[in-house]
């Protein structure tokens, strides 16, 4: 799918983040993980009249048994069938393999994330710059990561190591790669906070903002108190404009289904309509809550002129 054939309300992450930063709110980057759950994310955003990002990572694609094309096809089909008019971004999250980025762009993703954060800085710059050159040539935004964001959810990333983002390195990284958005490590973690308390190093975040012009992304938004998110969004000169939320969606889905173990995409699709609808309703409620009480993006669809 090329850019000219996309629905008019499907935008790039760069476009969406610019509006969010100006309006001092953040856009939720929601990971439905299973293709049927895409519908719940879209319905919630439409009800809240909020811009939104629908995302999936390389590891999630592998774990849940989905291809980028299957995910994109379901996203665009539901945009049409649900008559979604609010601004939407289709984003490929944490990805380490260039072929997956290429496949996602060919399938219609409007934003991709290259994650070489475990590499030395020079190599991270080289790999990220290559992804930027390819994606930009196809009209697609690029997010990258500097530092290492910890995890308790190995579906999202490979390990639980943390390495906070250095502001001076962030400046060099952005200057040399040309990325549109930067995921920063400032204290949050992917997954559920079971031992450590969530925190955000606001001084570090502000120092990064002062040195870099790109839009900033906070990964590990599930479980972070709302006041922390609000403060991170409203930093002087613009703060966080994109917040990733994945684990909370799956937890609400599984709770509604009376399950504790993750399924594959095929297993979820095989559930009875009654069970699936209950799960989707729970996810929709969670997304609505995040938009309304966490991100500040409710009723901001009107910021976008198509």
Question: What general form does the structure show?
Answer: globular
Helix amount, in percent?
A: 40-55%
The total count of strands amounts to 10
Sheet-strand content, in percent, reads 5-15%
What letter string, H or E per element, gives the SSE order?
A: HEHEHHEHEHEEHEEHEHEHHH
Q: Give average pLDDT, whole number.
A: 90
Helix count equals: 12
Sheet of most strands: 8 strands, parallel, barrel
Structural class: alpha/beta
The Cα radius of gyration reads: 18 Å
Order of strands in the sheet with most strands = 1-2-3-4-5-7-9-10
Tell me the span between the first and last alpha carbons: 19 Å
Regions with little confidence, pLDDT below 50 for 5+ residues: 190-195
What can you see in these coordinates?
With 306 residues, this protein is α/β, with parallel strands linked by helices. It is 45% helix and 15% strand. It contains twelve helices and ten strands. Strands 1-2-3-4-5-7-9-10 form an eight-stranded parallel barrel, surrounded by ten helices. The protein has a two-stranded parallel sheet with strand order 6-8. The longest helix has 23 residues, at 273-295. The chain is globular. It starts with 12 loop residues before the first helix and ends in an 11-residue tail after the last helix. The model is unreliable at 190-195 (pLDDT under 50). This is Class II fructose-bisphosphate aldolase.
